[in-house]
Amino acid sequence: MENCDNLYHENLPNICQIVKNRSKKCCEHATCKQFLPIISWLPKYNVQFLLADFVAGLTVGLTAIPQAIAYASIAGLPTQFGLYSAFMGCFVYIVFGTCKDITVGPTAIMALMVQAHVTGSSDYAVLTCFLSGCVIFLLGIFNLGVLVRFISIPVTTGFTTAAAITIASGQVNNLFGIKSSSNEFIESWVNFFGHITETRRNDAILGIATLVLLLLMMKIKDLPLSCKMLTKYISLSRNALAVIVGIVLCYCLSHDGWLPFRASGEITKGIPPFKPPPFSTTVNGTKVTFGEMVTDLGASLASIPLISILESIAIAKAFSKGKIVDASQEMVALGLCNILSSFFSSMPITGSFTRTSINHSSGVKTPLGGAVTGALVLMALAFLTTTFSYIPKATLAAIIISAMIFMVEYERIIEIWRSKKMDVIPFSVTALVCLFWSLEYGMVCGIFVNAIFILYKSARPKILISLEKVNSVPLGLVQVQENLCYSSAEYLKSKVVKFVTTQGDNSIKMIIIKGDEITNIDSTVGLNILSLKEDLSLLECSLICWNWNYDAAGVICRLHPKERSMFKFGKSISEIVAEVAYNMTQTEIVDVPEDS
Amino acid sequence: MENCDNLYHENLPNICQIVKNRSKKCCEHATCKQFLPIISWLPKYNVQFLLADFVAGLTVGLTAIPQAIAYASIAGLPTQFGLYSAFMGCFVYIVFGTCKDITVGPTAIMALMVQAHVTGSSDYAVLTCFLSGCVIFLLGIFNLGVLVRFISIPVTTGFTTAAAITIASGQVNNLFGIKSSSNEFIESWVNFFGHITETRRNDAILGIATLVLLLLMMKIKDLPLSCKMLTKYISLSRNALAVIVGIVLCYCLSHDGWLPFRASGEITKGIPPFKPPPFSTTVNGTKVTFGEMVTDLGASLASIPLISILESIAIAKAFSKGKIVDASQEMVALGLCNILSSFFSSMPITGSFTRTSINHSSGVKTPLGGAVTGALVLMALAFLTTTFSYIPKATLAAIIISAMIFMVEYERIIEIWRSKKMDVIPFSVTALVCLFWSLEYGMVCGIFVNAIFILYKSARPKILISLEKVNSVPLGLVQVQENLCYSSAEYLKSKVVKFVTTQGDNSIKMIIIKGDEITNIDSTVGLNILSLKEDLSLLECSLICWNWNYDAAGVICRLHPKERSMFKFGKSISEIVAEVAYNMTQTEIVDVPEDS
Question: Which residues of A touch B158 (CB under 8 A)?
Fold first, then answer.
């Protein structure tokens, strides 16, 4: 009772102190180690690690190259941009990354999300890479990775499912050698069925055969064969094998400039020059300023970083094996990967699930494996671009489709349905909006619909009101079982008033609100409780707040200091009833002659 | 333990049953009485009531007419539209309204909100009235008035403050006889200071004198004078008096068509024809279809109904004196007022605070008082339009400004600041966005910022983890003090893992999550708890969920039926520890040779 100063003065956090503490922490050695995880593992590096990392890096590289080329086509960019995006992330992540398995580079979803903006110029993709890198970096620095928590599993599942279906649909035309300019779900199928007569036999045969073989090779490692090691490596390098077979077929069957399949075509040779990302560009001869480019990118500058973080952190968690993932540091690393990558004309990049799992199953020991992958991509750019121009589009389509088939989380969808029917709503909203409108808005709608669940619950906290008789005074005992906030303020008020009025005229003399679970309230709740007190006094019922903590009680006391008497601390209910009943008789003695 | 079927089958509400019950309820007499409140009070009506209602209705009417004309000018509509909006609401509310004091009609905020859309044609205002009436009606029918609960008091205060400042600012030009075409906050003041030299002496003198007198008359009733009754009626009829004085001055000083003040000008005479609201219109000779009109109105079709409900329900609550306001019925009434009013070319209407308080203080007994008000407005339209064309604009400006000065809730702002500093954030966001961008977006931003408070809290529930020693087994006892939802799923997981890892290697053998306050979880929480179990098992720690209720436990059991053993019901902690420790030794006997 003595230390109730904060009933009249609000306890606020001292911002100066917080800033001081934070800045002090920045200069410590532990923080340095946290920011540069390479310091922790590099001193312990040995030859055994080097061998393991080399083999893993090589295996990942053989998948990274065909995937990079395929994702460039999803993004609608010239083929070399895929490879431009695939090396810098690998190098940067070695220094800043915390998870040994993660491989950062172009992914199908990132490619699809950037695709909408590159119609004018590839500069948009590079600028998106730079800006989303900055956003991710800042979110990481300010520890705002918690935002990702508001993307629930049903929403994530809906998003991945829709993205996989969209991406696979976009490649169906290429699989059959049909020309198509769109990567959208509906448009792709409309184009496919509209031009099905234009199917090219060679492409279709190659595409379908490759797809079937890829799926078989993926499953080969699960078969009970004797040579486990061989089947494992065949399974891991299946994408590289498909590309090599495609190139060899295309090259051998070609004559006099005629190609048997529609191929990737010319790839600009050489390592991209190191230059700052384009802060203005030219579309159809018109100059577009930085401001206009940002306006064009719009909501993508929020959704691309978010999806990027989500993909990367989800992978880090999947491969962390019980260790806590330092989400903020992962975001810092991912941000820097994007920022530096954009200086080499990259599109937005993030952790790739396929390549990360290949990395893991190839037995990588440290993030240094990424150096081998990066070097391999650079070598491909320097020496193999002519070779890659022979990659049949149907082969790439088969590689993408086979990856997407396994990206749809069928089991997860069934799990959600089985465990909680309500969660099917955010899932379906996300999936449908993603499929039929756009990926960004699907994500936003899903998050919004799911947030409504939280808000709805906040508006209907569990409130128990029981009728008690203490010292033969009938009273209502109110137990609020969750925290009160502005959305539940009126609910509490109407529930109490309804209780009092349904008990019959003036039969309830007192309402006691127990404060056990009320840790804090806002001014709306405070004002509503004051107005509840007034309403109750018209019904000749008094309101007592019993054992509220000082933070919550303070809000009301500071609103109307004279209402301090409403709060009772420490006493038992019967003591309170006796006290209030005595006060009531005192005032009644004065009032009685006038009232009745 | 026996009745745990719902661990494997989700209990879902039977929708058919709900619909049946609802539709059955619709046909009952009580529901009829609820939907037509007039049934309750009309049979008890008597002559005494009639007299009181007549006096009150007359007094309100004398304020309603000048206000209606003033608000038409705020909305940028021809003067007669103000009067068109002022009668139908009064009549409809008699039948469907639950609160005897409320007067439905045009208000300053509604006028300002519709103003942005009437630049092309007044048809937009009438269509807005009809459509927002439909929205309000439907929200009422489906009992969605709870939506208003998400508009907290700081947001409401910010909105009213900004609206009052904007409306008053828009009238400053008229007060000084300066021409102005805008009602926006900044533009009005820019126009005022840019054209201050064009101030018309006559208008400025009349305007300022009227404003001063109105403010004095408002205060006159608080003075300790002897003739209470007279001062009260002077105070109540001050707006009507100001208009009469203005008209008389303007008429007497005019000669040969020259007017001493800028006046309202021509008002179309007669009662508006009964016709359906315009579902298409013509702007500058171009036909605008219904679809295009709706697109033009955009977000207003959500914000106007919401503000309309908010104003009306807030007033109903203020005048209900402790009785519970049937918000849904109020919304049904308000929706019908708007729908029917739109058939007489009305702009959107809602409960007016000024007129409702005049109604109340004039001693109205039943909603029938509205009939007198409505009749008075109709008579004004039929016979007095020529007279009203002499109303000086400066007089109307003074009436509006004097009303707005009292609409700013200075005390409320101070209260919010004093009681809860955090609540100043939604207040300021709402007020600033309303002032400098637009009223609709201000409201939306305020609601959004305030919802972040709830969401943030949901992501960080209070979780207490204590180190206990039961049967000499060290274990962590987790108490979740609020409900778990998807946003808090990872927080719980990381908190438990951090606890286990910071306690030193393998020192914690078991984590027990108490289920006392966990009433329900979603699939994201379920999946995170399963992944927490896996992570902990890598740290050689087992996870037990103790005394969870079946709803919450069922979500996890349905995800992975074999995890059923994780849940312990009823037993004491020491029994559980003994059981789990026994199982662990059993498995360890098998595992030990391989592990160490």
Answer: none
Residue showing tokens 């007033």: B315
Closest among B156, B520, B516 to A461, alpha carbons compared? B520
Q: Where are the alpha helices (DSSP H) in B254-368?
A: 290-297, 300-319, 327-341, 353-361
pLDDT > 70? residue A446: yes
Q: What are phi and psi of A539, to 5 degrees?
A: -90, 15
Q: What is the pLDDT of residues B454-479, one digit of tens each?
A: 998 888 888 889 888 888 888 899 98
**Closest in A322, A459, A556 to B146, CB measured:** A459
**Domains of chain B, start order:** 36-273+287-453 (no CATH), 461-585 (3.30.750.24)
Nearest-angstrom CA–CA distance, B82 and B106: 7
Q: Which residues of A touch B523 (CB under 8 A)?
A: 153-154, 415-416, 419-420, 423
- Residue A532 in contact with residue A543, Cβ under 8 Å? yes
Closest residue in A to B149 (Cα) is A487
Classify each residue of B224-239 as buried b or exposed e, where b means 16 or more C-beta atoms within 10 Å of its C-beta. eeeeeeebeeebbbbb
Count CB atoms within 10 A of the CB of residue A211: 22
Q: pLDDT of A178-206, one tens digit each?
A: 888 777 889 899 999 999 998 999 899 99
> With an 8 Å Cβ cutoff, are B152 and A522 in contact?
yes
Helix, strand, coil distribution of chain B in percent, nearest 5: 65, 5, 25
The ipTM of this complex is 0.80
Name the helix (H) or strand (E) containing A192: helix A185-194
- Which among A486, A519, A538 has CB closest to B450? A486
- Residue with structure tokens 């739109």? B342
What backbone torsions phi and psi does residue B143 show, to the nearest 5 degrees?
60, 35
Distance of alpha carbon A558 from alpha carbon A529, whole angstroms: 13
**Cα separation, A105 vs A115, whole angstroms:** 16
Residues of A in contact with B418 (CB under 8 A): 558-559
Q: Distance between CA B532 and CA B551 in Å, rounded?
A: 20
Query: Considering only CA atoms, which of B343, B345, B317 is closest in space to residue B330?
Result: B317
Distance from CA of A486 to the nearest CA of B (A): 6
